[in-house]
Specification:
275 residues, alpha/beta, Rossmann fold, elongated, Universal_stress_UspA, UspA domain-containing protein
């Protein structure tokens, strides 16, 4: 049984991410926890009476229950059950608290909510959660994504770090859910691997030996966005896997706004694994 947390603001983007999750985990017994953050900013608290706050709480709970009923109607899957969770913390705290209380295995979240500007790929709420979240893997769904069976997963790496068994186990588990192929791509600065990189590559090959996988080398160019996008298109990638740790390849891409730029070109989810 998997426990999947889905934060929602009841927007079309959040609905699309939820439907994506139901499709992805279609063959897995899951409880989906539908989480809504109804935080009232401290600057506005004084203008709210306790009665009005209770009305807002009840309205939010009703919205969650209606969402649950809607999902149960469109998703006739005996593998799936739903529960609702309402929080008055900000979304970052709400996610962390819910993950801990409900022993969550995966978080599935849209890149942006109802107020997300078209030119922004990842909204501020999702960015806050990604930057400060370390508890479990997170599947981030682009607002313009349509579900595709994840036949090919891309795992970009600079091979400068030895990955833990725990991190690789998540990739293997994720691949096994839909019998996906893992495409490891090494972005190189120098044609020859260092001894450490070669050892890390050998270890990665060994760890992934029992899942279908392939290894590619791609020269790291100035325009990382174009390099990654070309690889995704050439290999027909359905999901991009990123390991998140300090100074990681993912963190560098995020800092350099490559992830934001990619959003204008690709329509596939990101699986972010804390390491």
């Amino acid at each position: 049984m998997k426990r999947i947390l889905i934060p929602t603001d009841f927007s079309d983007n959040a609905w699309a991410a939820t439907i994506y999750a139901l499709n992805f985990f279609a063959n897995v017994k899951c409880t989906f926890y539908l989480l809504h953050s109804a935080q009232i900013k401290s600057s506005r608290m004084s203008s709210f009476s306790s009665k009005l706050s209770e009305v807002m709480k009840e309205n939010a709970l009703n919205d969650l229950r209606h969402l649950q009923e809607r999902l149960e109607k469109v998703n006739a899957n005996d593998n799936h059950t739903f529960e609702v969770r309402l929080s008055f913390h900000d979304i970052e705290q709400a996610v962390n608290i819910s993950v801990e209380k409900n022993n969550i295995d995966f978080v599935v979240m849209s890149t942006k909510g109802a107020t997300g500007a078209k030119e922004i790929f990842i909204g501020s709420n999702t960015t806050d959660v990604i930057n400060n979240f370390k508890a479990c893997p997170m599947l981030v769904i682009p607002a313009n994504a349509t579900y595709q069976n994840p036949e090919r997963l891309a795992f970009p790496s600079d091979l400068k770090r030895m990955y833990s068994n725990t991190s690789i186990d998540v990739i293997k588990e994720f691949a096994s859910l839909n019998k996906s192929k893992v495409e490891v791509v090494h972005f190189w600065e120098n044609a020859e691997l260092t001894q450490q990189q070669q050892e890390n590559l050998d270890s990665l090959r060994m760890y992934l030996d029992d899942v279908e996988s392939d290894f590619s080398n791609l020269q790291k160019r100035t325009n990382k966005t174009e390099s990654i996008n070309n690889f995704i298109n050439d290999k027909q990638i359905n999901t991009l896997i990123m390991l998140k740790y300090q100074h990681s390849f993912f963190e560098n891409l995020f800092r350099e706004a490559v992830i934001q730029n990619l959003g204008h070109h690709i329509k596939i989810p990101f699986l972010i694994i804390p390491a």
